[in-house]
Amino acid sequence: MRIYGVTGWKNSGKTHLVERLVTEITGRGFSVSTVKHAHHATEIDHPGRDSFRHREAGAREVLVASPARWALMHELRGAEEPALAELLEKLSPVDLVLIEGYKRESHPKVETHRAATGRPLLAPDNPTVRAVASDSAHPGLALPVLDLDDTGAIADFILGEVGL
Length: 164
What we know:
Elements: E1 2-7, H1 14-27, E2 32-36, H2 50-56, E3 61-65, E4 70-74, H3 84-88, E5 96-100, E6 109-113, E7 129-134, E8 145-147, H4 151-162
Parallel strand pairs: 1-5, 1-6, 2-5, 6-7, 7-8
Antiparallel strand pairs: 3-4
């Protein structure tokens, strides 16, 4: 399975770019899945829902199924967060998995950067960053700099990198 990341500082446009890339790349006929890393206890279920009540009661896993979709929630209950490689093994095969976050993992990435965040680029200190998608120029950077709003060009870059 081919994987490619989108990384960057908070509020740099990662989620918006991943959303646009999924639309662009699936529109070209490829199947895409995503993995999103969060640094906090993310709730995907809500108090009062049956599945929430099952988790609160102590269930290790809760699978919710409907005619439209199914979802499996796994509670770590104090165990360590699984490695990215272990999580990727749980996905069904697709042409491309886009990974949001996971700055320190070894897969190739595009860094999103917005000048307004005031944060420095990750790319100079992170060899897994292969290009920067930004709203500003970065003279002297030894990597391709792509327009953050040019989804097609960013998709072309990623698809070329993974051989699709």
